[in-house]
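Field: sequence (string)
Field: structure_tokens (string)

Example rows 1 and 2, in order.
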Amino acid sequence: MKKILCLLLAFMVIGPLYSQYSEEEVSVIVSQGWDYITDGRQIDSAFSVVQKLEKICADQGSEKACLNMLQLKAEHHFFSNSLDSAVYWYKRGLEESEALGNENEAAYCAGSLGGVYSSMGRNREALEQFQKALDYRVQVNDTSGILYILMRRAWMQVDSEQMDGAMQDCVSVLKYAEASKDHFNVGRIYGCMSVIFEKQKQLEKAIEYQALSSAKYKEVNYEEGAVANKVNMAIIMKDLGRYEEAFALYDEALVFFRETNLVFGILSVFTNRAVAANRSGDHKRALVESDSALKYAIPFKLNVAQSDNFNEKGIAYLALGDLEKALSFSQKAIDLLDSSSKSLEKRKNAEKTLSKIYGEQGDYKNALVHYKTFALLKDSIFESKRSNQMLRLEEQYESQKKQSQIEALNAARELEDTKKKAVQFGLIGVVLLSGVILNREYQRRKKVRALHVSELSLAESERTRLQDQLHFKNKELTAQALHIAQKNELFNSIKTELEEAKRGDEGDFARGMMHKINLDSQIDRNWDQFIQMFTETNTDFLQTISTRFPDVSKNELRLCALIKMNLTNKEIGTVLNISDDGVKKARYRLRKKMKLETNDSLEQVILTI
């Protein structure tokens, strides 16, 4: 019995020692967990690795096990669409990494946290985390890490339509990559720049940069990047209406994604083919493509992808005349979306589809409700983009201002130190006194010059900020004019539909709504706001017109302002809610009041004022 007890005791003491994992074994377990995450279809298997690492962390206190356990937990929640939980665990990982002084892991956690915030549409927090990750990468002199963070930040800004910021990051990456002859990242950044040009509707430039990107990928034999470029090129072909070329490119990409088992690539191709099929009028094919995409989106609980494809099915069924199914799928598209800024764009499209479906059903009341929701979401997205642009300008200005202030303080501190040293050295003796004083005076003047240069830099930053503000106000003014035009088009379109409804069973409802719309359209001109914004960027213009040509009316002053903005006759007519002939007559009356000769250009006269 004593022998048995001794053996049991020995096992209890020695056993745990044999259950310890070496660092090499921990590394193997960690790699296995990340392989599961990368695969995309083995998320639950990744969680079993998390549990194993959690035990190793508790038993051994292994830094590698502890930090990777937190990161894998965050990734598991991210792919399970639990974004708030993903934020929590990545924050935990960041805090632990910073506490341990592990700058590489802190950089990874901050960059991943920025990616999660970007997925949630929380762009300001995403930018903060990307900047923190960038600072860590700079501290450890990790060039490839710097390029990676700049690339992620550029793509985030592309998604949120902050194109100026995205292009700045692209240029920074290009400088790094070209200097080190990093053809792989040069190819990636050309691809990103191509997408920026595509979103800005500069399609020829987009095609040019896609070709540059593909050439770089060919040099380094990066087939996956070349295939991604084919998908982007297909999107450009779709925008150009060259649908057969787009489908051919999608087919080539799909073969590669299936061979390499890249689930998200397959999903992207099916979704884009559904959009292209609807646009080309092949609505039955759009239904097939959307069903194929949903087979991948539903198991992974990818709500945004599901919403996109349900909306495409709604559009297809609407075109095919099956209004009941169209209504069902479009409503599903809306139900899947949350309140993030990315989802607002998707919901706007779904609300527009629903409005069309109700219109086809003759339910003009619900059609109007959903069209108003669509218009409100459109305005909301417009305001959000404008706020993002302003935020970017403010951040740039504050950064320049802080840098100039730091330089000024450093120069002032050095100047003060120089004065103190001059006094101390003055006690050395008469012989050295003259030389020391002359030397320190030279140093003082040098520091004063540095201080002066810093002050000039601060003044230049202020001048740049004012120029940026002026540029932004001009863009905002044009946007305001187009906004007025869009509202006029909206009301005219609704009035036309209601005119038709007046002749049907809903005549009383239609007449009532027409009365409201006519009233709203008179009230909601926003001309006072437009004139105020115009005057901010064109001081004294309207006053000069009124002084030189006192017979010019208020409406003709508005016409002058729109001509000053270089708008076409068609755009002017839309903004003023008059026909092309009305614009021509208004211009003729204005020329007479300004007493212009036949050969005089009205535009030239107004632009020179």
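Row 2 begins here:
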Amino acid sequence: MIGGGIVGAATAYELHRAGVDVVLLEARRLGDGTSGNSTAKVTSLHGLTYRDFDPDTARVYGQANEWGLARVAELASELGIDCALRRKAAYTYAEGASDLSKVEEEVEAARAAGLPASFTTESDLPWEIAGAVRFDDQVEFQPVDYILGLAAELDREHPRVYERTRATAVSGGVVSTDTGFSVRAERVVVATQLPFLDRGLFFARTHIERSYALSLRIRGAVPEGMYLSTESPAHTLRAIPWGGEELLLVGGESHDMTRTKDRGGFAALENWARERFEVQSFEHRWGAHDFIAEDSLPYVGRLTPTSDRVLTATAMRKWGYALGTASAAILAETVQGRHHPWGDTFDSWRRPPLKTLPKALLHNAEDGVAFFGDRLRRGHEVDDLGPGQGRVIRSGVGQKAVHRDGAGVLHAVSARCTHLGCIVRWNEGEASWDCPCHGSRFEPDGTVLAGPATRPLEAREPPKEEPMPPRGVKKGTKRARQYEHVKKSEKQAGRSEQRAEEIAARTVNKEKARSGESRTASRSSVKDISSGKRGGKRSGSGPGGRTREQLYNDAKKLGIAGRSSMNKKQLLAAVNRKKGS
């Protein structure tokens, strides 16, 4: 098993229970990906879904989800997994009359598929609704605790779960990893959300949507139900137990990662929450992206059409807990040489309906536009890049992804995603480099956060910054050159960086005042000018007469961990301790 999310853990457990010898590999930590960064609803109600399926597909889709939901609850009880599992009603609601007919159609289609659907105009939301689909006896839980519980069963007799072990290739039944070790297996299941192996072309058969979530403390009662709106972008909410109290989880603001940048992400979600609830505080925030097939069904089965030695499950939309658990049952049967009755409907090489072809062509065309268009974009400077911000800039014939850390220091990596070469984009809300084409994500230093990429972004030399003049002096002017000349002279005379800046700023201010260029500048204090923003860094004398930037650079050279979060005094103490040792 490759991948430690819900599909990987559930499939490994089902196989282990059937007596199959299983090893599970996870690149980071169990549940670190989308499985641990969602709204954690285990439900058969997926927005407005059943009305779009033919009756046979709707029936199988509903059966699979109902079985997956029941299996999660059954295993949590049977194995004694403490995962805050609670039974709740789930709702898809229309706030206005415009979507009411769609809600009514969903109720009828779901009932016809044998699902526990009912129509209601009642809810415990603090606003009126026009109507809603209601499914009773659905589930909410803590997914990471559940996954860890399944993993504990796998490890009960001897270690079978290996975290921080990234699979990098599969060939001839041998799985290569970034640890230098390899695993030989008769069958391999790739459960990495989207297969990191490109031979099945699943990256071209799905599109990506990114969503955001917040937990918050509100004044008044927290709604008991699990809710999803019909609006676009949709919003979802439910109660979550936390530290002996109930917080409210709100999510939404989904957007296509290729077609658009986020519409505001966390900020937009916070605004929506404030409009609907009396918010006391925001406690947590997280995001995730999901892969969606054009016919809205998961792909479960063979990675390639000619062999069943390597299997996969992907494209769970945003409903991977019940669907992923059902997919695990299909995969487990396939590994044991048996055919599952849901297998044909979710077959990874099924023929897609003709009506989905235009959407598939559009999404792949958008990937192409992103691939070539981002290479043609004009480069930008980094002088105005603030702490915590990132930007792709042109570097010769290529591009660099440049990020300024909390200490004001620039870092650069290659802007080319190591999967298929699309140009990454900075995700400011989550401080990561994200690939808009196929969903790979990277830490600011290039470390892989999420596949299908398996290799980090290569380190690059950060761009050199032009010195910034003091506030009120335009870059490239005579006064700016005078400022740098005076500063350089004072530093050569043995002045500290801070003292040289103060003298240079005072000199420029006097000259401006003398020439009548700026009365405001002549009245400015030295502190106003010299402590202004300088390329995203704030200057100022630190402990020992050194700036924080200088202390940070010393700490970086000495390899001191946690330096980005230290203040000046802490950096000085850490540097002195390291030098003393």
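free_text_note (row 2): The domain at 377-460 is CATH 2.102.10.10 (Rieske Iron-sulfur Protein).
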